[in-house]
Design a protein that fits this description.
CATH topology of the largest domain: Rossmann fold
GO molecular function: hexosyltransferase activity
EC number: 2.4.1.157
Shape: globular
Pfam families: Glyco_transf_4, Glycos_transf_1
Number of domains: 2
Keywords: Glycosyltransferase, Transferase
Radius of gyration: 21 Å
InterPro entries: Glyco_trans_1, Glyco_trans_4-like_N, Glycosyltransferase_grp1
Number of strands: 14
Helix content: 25-40%
CATH architecture of the largest domain: 3-Layer(aba) Sandwich
Structural class: alpha/beta
Strand content: 15-25%
CATH superfamily of the largest domain: Glycogen Phosphorylase B
Length: 393
Protein backbone atom coordinates (compact mmCIF):
# COMPACT_ATOMS: atom_id res chain seq x y z
CA UNK A 1 0.00 0.00 0.00
CA UNK A 2 1.23 3.51 -0.82
CA UNK A 3 0.06 6.66 0.98
CA UNK A 4 0.79 10.27 0.12
CA UNK A 5 1.19 12.59 3.09
CA UNK A 6 1.06 16.31 2.35
CA UNK A 7 1.96 19.06 4.82
CA UNK A 8 2.78 22.77 5.07
CA UNK A 9 5.48 21.95 7.65
CA UNK A 10 8.21 19.35 8.09
CA UNK A 11 11.76 19.13 9.35
CA UNK A 12 13.97 21.11 9.64
CA UNK A 13 10.97 23.02 11.07
CA UNK A 14 10.65 21.53 14.55
CA UNK A 15 7.14 21.09 15.96
CA UNK A 16 4.66 18.39 16.86
CA UNK A 17 3.38 18.01 13.30
CA UNK A 18 6.87 17.36 11.94
CA UNK A 19 7.51 14.85 14.72
CA UNK A 20 4.22 13.05 14.08
CA UNK A 21 4.86 12.78 10.33
CA UNK A 22 8.41 11.49 10.81
CA UNK A 23 7.32 8.99 13.46
CA UNK A 24 4.58 7.46 11.33
CA UNK A 25 6.72 7.47 8.16
CA UNK A 26 9.36 5.47 9.98
CA UNK A 27 7.06 2.97 11.67
CA UNK A 28 4.50 2.39 8.91
CA UNK A 29 7.14 0.66 6.77
CA UNK A 30 6.92 -2.41 9.00
CA UNK A 31 3.16 -2.45 8.43
CA UNK A 32 3.60 -2.74 4.67
CA UNK A 33 2.76 0.93 4.05
CA UNK A 34 5.05 3.07 1.89
CA UNK A 35 4.72 6.77 2.71
CA UNK A 36 5.49 9.44 0.15
CA UNK A 37 5.66 13.03 1.39
CA UNK A 38 5.17 16.48 -0.19
CA UNK A 39 6.38 19.35 2.02
CA UNK A 40 7.97 22.82 1.77
CA UNK A 41 11.63 23.44 1.02
CA UNK A 42 13.24 25.58 3.71
CA UNK A 43 16.74 25.95 2.32
CA UNK A 44 19.26 23.47 1.01
CA UNK A 45 17.88 20.30 2.58
CA UNK A 46 19.55 17.18 1.14
CA UNK A 47 17.49 14.95 -1.13
CA UNK A 48 15.63 12.24 0.75
CA UNK A 49 13.96 9.23 -0.82
CA UNK A 50 10.20 9.59 -0.85
CA UNK A 51 10.24 13.30 0.08
CA UNK A 52 9.26 15.91 -2.52
CA UNK A 53 10.12 19.49 -1.57
CA UNK A 54 8.20 22.51 -2.92
CA UNK A 55 9.83 25.94 -2.88
CA UNK A 56 8.32 28.49 -0.51
CA UNK A 57 9.04 31.85 1.06
CA UNK A 58 9.29 32.77 4.77
CA UNK A 59 5.99 33.59 6.45
CA UNK A 60 5.72 37.23 7.49
CA UNK A 61 6.31 37.48 11.23
CA UNK A 62 7.34 33.82 11.56
CA UNK A 63 10.45 33.11 9.48
CA UNK A 64 10.62 29.51 10.74
CA UNK A 65 7.65 28.66 8.51
CA UNK A 66 7.28 28.62 4.73
CA UNK A 67 4.39 29.63 2.47
CA UNK A 68 4.36 27.56 -0.70
CA UNK A 69 2.70 28.62 -3.93
CA UNK A 70 -0.68 27.06 -4.70
CA UNK A 71 0.12 26.02 -8.27
CA UNK A 72 3.48 24.48 -7.43
CA UNK A 73 2.05 22.62 -4.44
CA UNK A 74 -0.98 21.31 -6.31
CA UNK A 75 1.15 20.17 -9.25
CA UNK A 76 3.60 18.36 -6.95
CA UNK A 77 0.81 16.71 -4.95
CA UNK A 78 -1.11 15.63 -8.05
CA UNK A 79 1.99 14.10 -9.64
CA UNK A 80 3.01 12.34 -6.42
CA UNK A 81 -0.48 10.94 -5.77
CA UNK A 82 -1.03 9.25 -9.13
CA UNK A 83 0.13 5.81 -8.01
CA UNK A 84 -1.00 6.12 -4.38
CA UNK A 85 -3.95 4.46 -2.63
CA UNK A 86 -4.83 7.30 -0.27
CA UNK A 87 -4.00 10.94 0.54
CA UNK A 88 -3.31 11.94 4.15
CA UNK A 89 -3.37 15.71 4.82
CA UNK A 90 -1.41 16.95 7.84
CA UNK A 91 -2.05 20.73 7.89
CA UNK A 92 -5.02 22.98 7.04
CA UNK A 93 -3.36 25.53 4.77
CA UNK A 94 -2.21 25.17 1.13
CA UNK A 95 -1.53 21.48 1.78
CA UNK A 96 -5.17 20.83 2.68
CA UNK A 97 -6.58 22.22 -0.54
CA UNK A 98 -3.86 20.72 -2.73
CA UNK A 99 -4.31 17.30 -1.14
CA UNK A 100 -8.09 17.45 -1.32
CA UNK A 101 -8.17 18.56 -4.96
CA UNK A 102 -5.66 15.91 -6.06
CA UNK A 103 -7.53 13.18 -4.20
CA UNK A 104 -10.85 14.13 -5.77
CA UNK A 105 -9.32 14.40 -9.25
CA UNK A 106 -7.80 10.94 -8.93
CA UNK A 107 -10.71 9.32 -7.10
CA UNK A 108 -8.68 8.59 -3.97
CA UNK A 109 -9.91 8.58 -0.37
CA UNK A 110 -8.61 11.49 1.68
CA UNK A 111 -8.06 11.75 5.44
CA UNK A 112 -6.58 14.53 7.57
CA UNK A 113 -5.10 14.71 11.04
CA UNK A 114 -6.39 17.66 13.08
CA UNK A 115 -3.18 18.66 14.84
CA UNK A 116 -3.88 22.26 15.91
CA UNK A 117 -6.72 23.80 17.93
CA UNK A 118 -7.04 27.00 15.91
CA UNK A 119 -9.88 28.35 18.05
CA UNK A 120 -7.35 28.94 20.84
CA UNK A 121 -4.26 29.36 18.68
CA UNK A 122 -5.29 32.28 16.46
CA UNK A 123 -6.09 34.76 19.24
CA UNK A 124 -2.40 34.85 20.18
CA UNK A 125 -1.45 36.06 16.70
CA UNK A 126 -4.37 38.36 15.82
CA UNK A 127 -4.93 40.20 19.07
CA UNK A 128 -6.40 43.24 17.33
CA UNK A 129 -9.41 41.14 16.17
CA UNK A 130 -12.27 40.57 18.66
CA UNK A 131 -11.72 37.17 20.27
CA UNK A 132 -15.36 36.05 20.02
CA UNK A 133 -15.56 36.74 16.30
CA UNK A 134 -12.20 35.05 15.72
CA UNK A 135 -13.29 31.92 17.59
CA UNK A 136 -16.46 31.69 15.52
CA UNK A 137 -14.52 32.00 12.28
CA UNK A 138 -11.99 29.37 13.39
CA UNK A 139 -14.77 26.92 14.27
CA UNK A 140 -16.53 27.45 10.93
CA UNK A 141 -13.23 27.09 9.06
CA UNK A 142 -12.43 23.81 10.81
CA UNK A 143 -15.97 22.48 10.31
CA UNK A 144 -15.86 23.19 6.56
CA UNK A 145 -12.47 21.59 6.10
CA UNK A 146 -13.22 18.49 8.17
CA UNK A 147 -16.56 17.87 6.46
CA UNK A 148 -14.80 17.80 3.08
CA UNK A 149 -12.92 14.65 4.11
CA UNK A 150 -13.62 10.93 4.13
CA UNK A 151 -12.29 10.72 7.71
CA UNK A 152 -10.60 12.84 10.36
CA UNK A 153 -7.88 11.65 12.72
CA UNK A 154 -7.75 13.41 16.10
CA UNK A 155 -4.95 12.92 18.65
CA UNK A 156 -7.18 12.92 21.74
CA UNK A 157 -10.70 12.35 23.02
CA UNK A 158 -11.00 16.01 24.02
CA UNK A 159 -10.25 17.06 20.45
CA UNK A 160 -12.94 14.74 19.08
CA UNK A 161 -15.45 16.22 21.51
CA UNK A 162 -14.48 19.73 20.42
CA UNK A 163 -14.95 18.89 16.73
CA UNK A 164 -18.28 17.24 17.51
CA UNK A 165 -19.35 20.54 19.05
CA UNK A 166 -18.25 22.36 15.90
CA UNK A 167 -20.64 20.24 13.85
CA UNK A 168 -18.10 17.98 12.17
CA UNK A 169 -19.94 15.01 10.66
CA UNK A 170 -17.09 13.16 8.92
CA UNK A 171 -16.08 9.94 10.74
CA UNK A 172 -13.51 10.71 13.44
CA UNK A 173 -10.84 8.37 14.80
CA UNK A 174 -8.83 9.01 17.98
CA UNK A 175 -5.25 8.05 17.15
CA UNK A 176 -2.36 9.80 18.93
CA UNK A 177 1.24 9.81 17.79
CA UNK A 178 3.37 7.23 19.54
CA UNK A 179 6.99 7.55 20.59
CA UNK A 180 10.12 5.36 20.42
CA UNK A 181 10.23 4.44 24.10
CA UNK A 182 13.76 3.03 24.13
CA UNK A 183 15.17 6.24 22.64
CA UNK A 184 13.78 8.44 25.41
CA UNK A 185 14.63 5.97 28.17
CA UNK A 186 18.31 5.97 27.19
CA UNK A 187 19.27 9.58 27.91
CA UNK A 188 22.30 10.57 30.00
CA UNK A 189 21.37 13.40 32.32
CA UNK A 190 24.91 14.03 33.58
CA UNK A 191 26.15 14.60 30.04
CA UNK A 192 23.49 17.28 29.59
CA UNK A 193 24.19 18.93 32.95
CA UNK A 194 27.93 19.08 32.29
CA UNK A 195 27.39 20.49 28.81
CA UNK A 196 25.23 23.32 30.15
CA UNK A 197 27.05 23.99 33.41
CA UNK A 198 24.24 22.75 35.68
CA UNK A 199 25.32 21.43 39.08
CA UNK A 200 24.60 17.78 39.73
CA UNK A 201 22.42 18.55 42.75
CA UNK A 202 20.52 21.54 41.34
CA UNK A 203 16.78 20.79 40.88
CA UNK A 204 15.70 21.13 37.26
CA UNK A 205 12.18 21.72 35.98
CA UNK A 206 11.99 21.21 32.21
CA UNK A 207 9.78 22.51 29.42
CA UNK A 208 10.19 21.16 25.89
CA UNK A 209 8.28 22.61 22.96
CA UNK A 210 7.90 25.49 20.59
CA UNK A 211 8.53 28.81 22.32
CA UNK A 212 5.23 30.30 21.21
CA UNK A 213 2.53 32.34 22.92
CA UNK A 214 -0.05 29.54 22.81
CA UNK A 215 2.26 27.32 24.90
CA UNK A 216 1.59 29.55 27.93
CA UNK A 217 5.24 29.54 29.01
CA UNK A 218 4.77 32.88 30.74
CA UNK A 219 2.56 31.02 33.23
CA UNK A 220 5.52 28.74 34.03
CA UNK A 221 7.76 31.74 34.67
CA UNK A 222 5.22 33.15 37.14
CA UNK A 223 4.93 29.73 38.78
CA UNK A 224 8.72 29.51 39.04
CA UNK A 225 8.79 32.79 40.95
CA UNK A 226 6.47 31.22 43.55
CA UNK A 227 8.39 27.91 43.62
CA UNK A 228 11.62 29.77 44.43
CA UNK A 229 10.11 31.02 47.67
CA UNK A 230 10.46 27.50 49.07
CA UNK A 231 13.18 26.17 46.73
CA UNK A 232 15.38 29.14 45.70
CA UNK A 233 17.81 27.08 43.59
CA UNK A 234 15.14 25.77 41.20
CA UNK A 235 16.23 26.02 37.57
CA UNK A 236 13.74 26.12 34.69
CA UNK A 237 15.19 24.80 31.43
CA UNK A 238 13.28 25.81 28.29
CA UNK A 239 14.18 23.68 25.26
CA UNK A 240 12.83 25.09 22.03
CA UNK A 241 12.65 28.18 19.84
CA UNK A 242 9.89 30.34 18.47
CA UNK A 243 8.26 33.76 18.12
CA UNK A 244 7.66 34.32 21.85
CA UNK A 245 11.35 34.12 22.77
CA UNK A 246 12.00 37.87 23.14
CA UNK A 247 8.83 38.42 25.18
CA UNK A 248 9.69 35.54 27.52
CA UNK A 249 13.25 36.74 28.03
CA UNK A 250 11.87 40.17 28.90
CA UNK A 251 9.43 38.59 31.36
CA UNK A 252 12.27 36.55 32.87
CA UNK A 253 14.20 39.75 33.52
CA UNK A 254 11.16 41.58 34.87
CA UNK A 255 10.59 38.78 37.40
CA UNK A 256 14.26 38.75 38.39
CA UNK A 257 14.70 35.16 37.21
CA UNK A 258 17.79 35.58 35.01
CA UNK A 259 19.77 33.11 37.15
CA UNK A 260 16.86 30.66 37.37
CA UNK A 261 15.97 30.19 33.68
CA UNK A 262 18.01 29.02 30.71
CA UNK A 263 16.85 28.94 27.11
CA UNK A 264 18.74 26.24 25.21
CA UNK A 265 17.01 26.21 21.82
CA UNK A 266 16.14 23.14 19.79
CA UNK A 267 17.87 19.85 20.52
CA UNK A 268 18.61 16.87 18.32
CA UNK A 269 15.91 14.29 19.00
CA UNK A 270 18.17 11.27 18.70
CA UNK A 271 20.47 11.97 21.64
CA UNK A 272 20.58 15.54 22.96
CA UNK A 273 16.84 15.66 23.70
CA UNK A 274 16.77 12.32 25.59
CA UNK A 275 19.79 13.55 27.58
CA UNK A 276 17.87 16.73 28.39
CA UNK A 277 14.86 14.79 29.68
CA UNK A 278 17.14 12.57 31.77
CA UNK A 279 18.66 15.64 33.42
CA UNK A 280 15.29 16.89 34.66
CA UNK A 281 13.70 16.23 38.04
CA UNK A 282 10.25 17.14 36.77
CA UNK A 283 8.59 18.17 33.50
CA UNK A 284 6.30 21.21 33.61
CA UNK A 285 3.65 22.18 31.06
CA UNK A 286 0.93 24.82 30.97
CA UNK A 287 -0.36 24.89 27.38
CA UNK A 288 -4.13 25.16 27.01
CA UNK A 289 -4.24 24.43 23.27
CA UNK A 290 -2.60 21.01 22.92
CA UNK A 291 -4.36 18.44 20.77
CA UNK A 292 -2.21 15.68 22.27
CA UNK A 293 0.79 16.79 24.36
CA UNK A 294 3.39 14.44 22.91
CA UNK A 295 6.20 15.91 25.01
CA UNK A 296 4.45 14.74 28.17
CA UNK A 297 4.73 11.14 26.96
CA UNK A 298 8.38 11.67 26.04
CA UNK A 299 9.06 12.87 29.59
CA UNK A 300 7.22 9.91 31.12
CA UNK A 301 9.15 7.50 28.90
CA UNK A 302 12.34 9.03 30.29
CA UNK A 303 11.06 8.34 33.81
CA UNK A 304 10.41 12.02 34.54
CA UNK A 305 7.17 12.91 36.39
CA UNK A 306 4.92 15.56 34.87
CA UNK A 307 3.25 18.54 36.55
CA UNK A 308 0.88 20.11 34.02
CA UNK A 309 -2.41 21.89 33.54
CA UNK A 310 -5.19 19.54 32.49
CA UNK A 311 -6.38 21.23 29.31
CA UNK A 312 -7.62 19.79 25.99
CA UNK A 313 -5.41 16.96 24.70
CA UNK A 314 -3.37 16.65 27.88
CA UNK A 315 -6.44 15.43 29.80
CA UNK A 316 -6.06 12.03 28.12
CA UNK A 317 -2.67 11.74 29.83
CA UNK A 318 -3.12 13.51 33.17
CA UNK A 319 -4.81 11.06 35.52
CA UNK A 320 -3.95 9.23 38.76
CA UNK A 321 -1.54 6.34 38.35
CA UNK A 322 0.21 7.78 35.31
CA UNK A 323 3.20 9.58 36.78
CA UNK A 324 1.49 12.95 36.53
CA UNK A 325 -0.09 15.61 38.71
CA UNK A 326 -2.37 18.45 37.65
CA UNK A 327 -2.57 21.46 40.02
CA UNK A 328 -5.10 24.28 39.67
CA UNK A 329 -4.64 26.68 36.75
CA UNK A 330 -3.13 29.36 38.98
CA UNK A 331 0.59 30.28 38.93
CA UNK A 332 0.80 30.43 42.73
CA UNK A 333 -0.77 27.00 43.23
CA UNK A 334 1.31 25.54 40.41
CA UNK A 335 4.50 27.04 41.85
CA UNK A 336 3.73 25.82 45.36
CA UNK A 337 3.16 22.32 43.97
CA UNK A 338 6.47 22.46 42.13
CA UNK A 339 8.29 23.65 45.25
CA UNK A 340 6.77 20.88 47.37
CA UNK A 341 7.67 18.28 44.75
CA UNK A 342 11.32 19.37 44.72
CA UNK A 343 11.59 19.68 48.51
CA UNK A 344 9.86 16.39 49.36
CA UNK A 345 10.84 13.85 46.67
CA UNK A 346 9.94 10.89 48.89
CA UNK A 347 6.32 12.04 49.03
CA UNK A 348 6.18 12.00 45.24
CA UNK A 349 8.22 8.82 44.71
CA UNK A 350 5.21 7.00 43.28
CA UNK A 351 5.19 9.32 40.25
CA UNK A 352 8.70 8.22 39.29
CA UNK A 353 7.56 4.59 39.44
CA UNK A 354 4.37 5.18 37.47
CA UNK A 355 5.82 7.30 34.67
CA UNK A 356 7.67 4.68 32.56
CA UNK A 357 4.94 2.08 33.12
CA UNK A 358 2.25 4.35 31.71
CA UNK A 359 4.44 5.40 28.77
CA UNK A 360 4.44 1.76 27.60
CA UNK A 361 0.88 2.31 26.34
CA UNK A 362 2.09 4.91 23.80
CA UNK A 363 4.58 3.01 21.65
CA UNK A 364 5.13 4.21 18.10
CA UNK A 365 4.74 0.65 16.79
CA UNK A 366 1.28 0.21 18.33
CA UNK A 367 0.05 3.51 16.91
CA UNK A 368 1.43 2.68 13.45
CA UNK A 369 -0.50 -0.61 13.50
CA UNK A 370 -3.70 1.28 14.20
CA UNK A 371 -3.05 3.84 11.47
CA UNK A 372 -2.25 1.14 8.91
CA UNK A 373 -5.53 -0.60 9.74
CA UNK A 374 -7.42 2.65 9.21
CA UNK A 375 -5.68 3.26 5.89
CA UNK A 376 -6.70 -0.16 4.63
CA UNK A 377 -10.29 0.36 5.73
CA UNK A 378 -10.52 3.72 3.97
CA UNK A 379 -8.82 2.59 0.77
CA UNK A 380 -10.46 -0.82 0.58
CA UNK A 381 -7.02 -2.39 0.20
CA UNK A 382 -6.66 -5.85 1.65
CA UNK A 383 -3.72 -6.60 3.92
CA UNK A 384 -1.38 -9.04 2.20
CA UNK A 385 -0.70 -12.28 4.12
CA UNK A 386 3.01 -11.44 4.09
CA UNK A 387 2.50 -8.05 5.73
CA UNK A 388 4.10 -8.02 9.19
CA UNK A 389 1.69 -7.01 11.92
CA UNK A 390 4.39 -5.50 14.09
CA UNK A 391 7.77 -3.96 13.51
CA UNK A 392 10.77 -6.20 13.77
CA UNK A 393 12.23 -6.30 17.24
Amino acid sequence: MRVLMVSDVYFPRVNGVSTSIETFRRTLVAQGVEVRLVVPRYGDEPDEEGVIRVAGRPVLGDPEDRLVGWRAMHRAVLDAARDCDLVHIQTPFIAHYAGLKAARQLGLPVVATYHTLFEEYLQHYARFIPAGWLRGQARAFSRRQCNQLDAVIVPSTAMRQRLDAYGVTSPMHVLPTGIPLAQFAAGDGMVFRLRHGIAEDRPVALFVGRVAHEKNIGFLLEALAHARQTRPDTLLVIAGEGPAMSDLKAQTAALGLQDSVIFIGYLDRKQALPDCYAAADVFVFASRTETQGLVLIEALAAGVPVIALSEMGTTDILAPGRGTFSPPADPKAFGETLGHFLNHPAAWRHLYDEAPRYAQEWTDVAMAERLATLYHQLAGVQCSPEMPLTAAA
